[in-house]
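Sample log: Inner membrane protein.
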Amino acid sequence: MTDDLSLNGSTVTDTEKTKWARGPLIIAFAFPVVFVVLALLALGYGLYKDKTKQDLNKGVAAYFEPAPSAKDAEIARLTAELNALKSQPAPVPVETPATAATAPVYSDPNLASRLSERMDRLEANQRLLVQAAASATAAAGLQQAAKGSQPFLSELADVEKSLTDTSLLAPLRPLAQKGVPSEVSLAIEFPAYAARAQTAAKSTDDDSFLGRIGNALNGLISVRRVDGTAKGTDNLLLQAQGRLDEGDLAGALAVLATLPKPAQDALAPWLARARNRLLVDTTTRRITVDALSRLSQANYTTVNTGTAL
């Protein structure tokens, strides 16, 4: 009896020892397996989370960005065709017998050079027009200033700057410094000189006592007939006076040129001033006419050049 219990007790003790010896071994093998499983689960969760996030972003983008419509596609196609047409060279029109007379000209290889030449002509004509206008203005100023009795040196200098041919101004230079009496002044002075001319015309070359007395009386007393019946020197002097009153200085000088020499000698100082006045008036008038003619020609040329290609 005692032996059986001992045997059984020994058997029980060995079994328990074996059971407790296997426990740590199982735990040692189970722990790595659990760790690997947990790592795989964590990796799978991370991959699932990233994919879910990407799908969510795509869904949001698809929600806010509408799909291209057929209208957008048509616009893109037309834009591409238009760009292709722009890149192609322009077609050269071919004239047919039926439309050769009325077909428009689409290109002119000489158009650029023609336009450049036209611009050059316009600029040259514009310069000529400005110069002609300045010359006309200076000439008109000279003519106005020279009509009076005052010097006209500055006006003469202005005209000289604007003229290419200054030969016309040569007769005026000696007279511009002091000036020339006006026609009004000459008309006022003429009666006194006419009386001297009348006296000189009636004087004789008789050197006798009676001749000298007669000449002295003629110098003291001068009677001019104004009733229209005057003849000879008196008639000529009256005609010259009438021309002066009408403003015809050239006509008056023409009449006085027919007086007898003694009468002309008596009128010499007045005649010299009157001839200078006529020279100034004639020359300044000619300068003005020439300047206005150039201005008109320059204006005509500029207008025609501007309207014709």
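Observation: Residues 143-294 form one domain.
Observation: The mean pLDDT is 74.
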